[in-house]
Amino acid sequence: MYGMTAAHRTLPFGTVVCVHDLDNGRDVTVRINDRGPFIEGRIIDLSFSAAQAMAMDLAGIARVRLEIVGRSASSEPGLFAVQVGAFRDRRNADRMKSLLEARHGPVEIQGFDRGDGIFYRVRVGSEGSEDAARELAQKLRRENLATETFVIRMN
Hints:
The chain is of the alpha+beta class. The chain is built from three helices and nine strands. Strands 4-1-3-2-5 form a five-stranded mixed β-sheet. Strands 7-8-6-9 form a four-stranded antiparallel β-sheet, with helices on one face. The longest helix has 15 residues.
């Protein structure tokens, strides 16, 4: 919360990104240390301190451009999954998992404390590329198994 950090769905942990506010001209450099945001149309979630440095802590959102200024030290190839839902009730997550795993396994349920309670994220696949995960997401939507999907990097 108080570090100069951010969440991104697919950039490797440790990647250093300069975030440019397109409206007020400010920028801040952050390190990716979490996954998110999981709201359609948003590309990065800044920590509280980073948002304050950008003068966007009150508005909460801003139009930004990202510039990668440093890569993570990891040379591991990426593994990608598709998040198909987040549920407060674990039973709903289990039902979604059962529906998906026979045709699209593996399916993982991950508990996450969002600050206002525990949510159970349902994630499908273990794809070797972001493009393959995007194809899986499209397939899940075409089959009406998920309406909102997010590709995330698992490592």
